[in-house]
Backbone:
């Protein structure tokens, strides 16, 4: 895999760009503080904007590494930030495997933004970075995320039973999906 880091990606409606420290308030308002969003991810809803600011400071600092792939999704017409998408694990990067995670504000669910972002990041990782495999997973209680993965070209691989306990203490299965470079070449 050729590491080139987080570069701007444009889609029809979105600009995927690096986070900036100034994004903290909107990130907090639009998704990071929302418990309905947090129940589908591996972190808890932020208690205040200072928690969001501290996280963004860590993220912005990591952009120095070309192995960092982390974007904020911004609506092109209004400049509103609506969520994030990134390569969430570096464990398998040496083998060209990119595990993708994403999160969007509840007000932006069901509008196709997740699919638009995921398709763009898949294209970037395969075509610009020469990745070999893209993978992702979602909690069983969040089937909408699985629909995003399938619409983006990923194939369901299997279910890891009881792998995750959500913020309400409920045990969930983790459903996993992937797309290989060879498969991508056939569908692009």
Residues:
């Amino acid at each position: 895999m050729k590491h080139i880091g987080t570069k701007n990606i444009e889609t029809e409606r979105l600009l995927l760009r690096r986070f900036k420290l100034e994004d903290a308030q909107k990130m907090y308002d639009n998704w990071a503080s929302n418990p309905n969003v947090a129940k589908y991810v591996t972190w808890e809803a932020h208690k205040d904007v200072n928690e969001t600011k501290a996280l963004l400071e860590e993220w912005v600092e990591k952009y120095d590494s070309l192995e960092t792939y982390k974007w904020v999704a911004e609506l092109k017409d209004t400049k509103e930030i609506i969520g994030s998408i990134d390569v969430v694990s570096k464990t398998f990067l040496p083998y060209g495997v990119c595990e993708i995670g994403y999160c969007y504000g509840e007000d932006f669910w069901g509008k196709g933004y997740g699919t638009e972002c995921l398709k763009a990041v898949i294209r970037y990782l395969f075509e610009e970075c020469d990745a070999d495999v893209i993978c992702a997973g979602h909690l069983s209680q969040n089937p909408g995320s699985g629909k995003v993965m399938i619409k983006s070209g990923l194939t369901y691989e299997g279910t890891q039973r009881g792998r995750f306990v959500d913020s309400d203490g409920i045990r969930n299965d983790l459903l996993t999906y992937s797309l290989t470079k060879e498969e991508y070449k056939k569908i692009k």
